[in-house]
Amino acid sequence: MPDVGDLLVFAIPQRLRYHPGVPTNPAQRPHKAAMPLILYNTLTRRKEPFVPGDPSRVTMYVCGPTVYSYAHIGNARGPVVFDVLRRHLAGRYPHVVYARNITDVDDKISAAANAQGTSISAITDKFARIYREDTAALGVQPPTIEPHATGHIREMVAMIEGLLASGYAYAAEGHVLFHVPAFGQYGQLSGRSQEDMLAGARVEVAPYKKDPADFVLWKPSPADLPGWDSPWGRGRPGWHIECSAMIAAHLGETIDIHGGGHDLIFPHHENELAQSTCAHRAKPLARFWMHNGFLTMDKEKMSKSLGNIMTVHELLKNAPGEAIRWALLGAHYRQPMDWSDELLGQAKKTLDRLYLTLDQAKSIEATRLAAPAAVIAALDDDLNTPIAMAEIAGIARALKAASDDADKARLKGELLAAGAVLGVLQQDPAAWLKGSLSTSVDAATVEGLIAARNAARKARDFKEADRIRDEIAGLGVLIEDRADGTHWRMAG
Ligand code: AMP
Ligand code: ZN
User: Residue 140, exposed/middle/buried by CB under 10 A (0-12, 13-18, 19+)?
Assistant: First the structure.
């Protein structure tokens, strides 16, 4: 059964359309909004009003990258979507604690270090740094906390000891395994039946497992792999226990929102949920579970193993991060999204137009306003960014058409406030327009032509001045002569 919300994603209800002339009340802070925030909860499979455990400290955890190579554009969808959620929550609640981990112990990392003849920390430091830089270029604010798995081995060992003591786990041949049949609710998040899970697990069942569905909490490490001393010998943690231990260490036993890509629902999040619930005397791990849909390329899943990836790092060489962000937010986060050059080109053009509108209103001082109610309402409806973006376009059209300075000041204020919630439109418009141009035309060339034109005008050689003006226009550049000199920008 499709969720009703899925059917509404691309329709813009009348009540959400932008109504010019209805000023946002500056005194109305967004977190006092009358409408509840509605989020789709993977656990209950429906949209529900979001109610945090403690409104004075909203907690959110998103599974972060395993740092052994460049993130691809699919990997960036989650960080961008959850960044919008975090900004939206920050408008409603005074304190949002957002943790996104770094997985810095993993067999893929060890293999990369071996292949490149370097140390594990050289690999993890390099790719964690690149991840931070590339996501920052997409306008993603750094998380409040960025826990590293290797910094929490003690907490993982303690949690595993607790699970052993309470009978949910057992040790066998240097491994410690979580015993799935001991947790009756196993499968509740993914909705998988025991048979589904066993069918997948039966392919290769390790001899030390009591049940084929049992999963690893701790495994032995040979001398050439990273390892830590533990009550079960030298070893390393399983992937799932890392997140459970880091969540408990930084955010508490029950958090408000746990997020990730939808491929993480099973087994990663199902296993996190099982371990944490059993370790914390049946307390739920998260009130809300949220999962972003996958990015495809030519309708095929983008993944490192298929080799059809496009890295964020490469894309950023040819496109502004904000255009990549706009493109990623152009579909509802739970829908699949097909990535293409056209999609990115369209996003860039839309931003060019929005920045041009802001540039044309540069002499107007924006009224300081809260984000417009229609934009907030769109985000309150399970983070409906496509509708919020349509609202932004509507505000920009109204700003462009406005003739009254007071209207312009209000609309400019609304445009900037709406942009801030989505993490866009906060750059200097003139700088954006120049940067936008510089991918095809060199700014120094334009400035040289302007100087030549001004020299021709000074010499009263108007024919030459007009010729240069045409040459500049031919580059797609608009110039404007003002009292303080000649200004230029890309034609919108
Ligand atoms: P991986 O590179 O498979 O370790 O994935 C890292 C993160 O990116 C996980 O949260 C995945 O859910 C997410 N992810 C991987 N591939 C995609 C994709 N094509 N579209 C959206 N998210 C993805
Ligand atoms: Zn995780």
Answer: buried
Rounded Cα–Cα distance for residues 149 and 146 (Å): 10
Domain membership of residue 328 (yes or no) is: no
Q: 450 and 310, same structural domain?
A: no
* Predicted TM-score (pTM) of this structure: 0.85
- Among 75, 77, 243, 324, which residue has the most ligand 1 atoms within 8 Å of its CB, making it the best to mutate? 75
pLDDT-derived band at 26, boundaries 50, 70, 90 = very low
Query: For residues 34 and 9, what is the distance between their CA atoms, to the nearest angstrom?
Result: 22
Amino acid at 353: R
- Quote the ligand 2 centre to 265 CA distance (angstroms): 10
Distance between CA atoms of residues 247 and 70, nearest Å: 25
Give the end of a domain, one of 314, 338, 368: 314
Residue 277's SS3 state is helix
335 is a domain residue:
no
Query: Amino acid letter at 411?
Result: L
Q: Is the CB of 294 under 6 A from ligand 1?
A: yes
The ligand that comes nearest to the alpha carbon of residue 264 is 1
Are 123 and 109 in contact by the 8 Å Cβ rule? The answer is yes
Among 314, 337, 352, give the residue marking a domain's end. Answer: 314
Ligand 1, atom 9, lies closest to the CA of 261
Q: What is the pLDDT of residues 141-169, one digit of tens each?
A: 999 999 999 999 999 999 999 999 999 99
For tokens 């894309």, the residue is 315
Residue 7's pLDDT band (boundaries 50, 70, 90)? very low
**Ligand 2 centroid, distance to 133 Cα (angstroms):** 21
**Residue 330 covered by a domain:** no
Range of the domain at 472: 443-490
Mean pLDDT taken over the chain? 89
Dist. CA 469–CA 47, nearest whole Å: 57
Start-end of H helices in 402-442:
405-422, 429-438
Q: How many domains does the chain have?
A: 2
Question: Residue 146, exposed/middle/buried by CB under 10 A (0-12, 13-18, 19+)?
Answer: middle
- Specify the CATH number for the domain of residue 281: 3.40.50.620
Beta pairing partners, 489:
478
Angle at which helix 405-422 crosses helix 373-380, to 10 degrees, equals 20
**Given the CA of residue 78, which atom of ligand 1 is nearest to it?**
22
Mind listing the pLDDT tens digit for each residue in 63-120?
A: 999 999 999 999 999 999 999 999 999 999 999 999 999 999 999 999 999 999 999 9
Confidence bin at 8 (pLDDT 50/70/90):
very low
Q: Round to whole Å and give the CA distance between 214 and 176.
A: 10
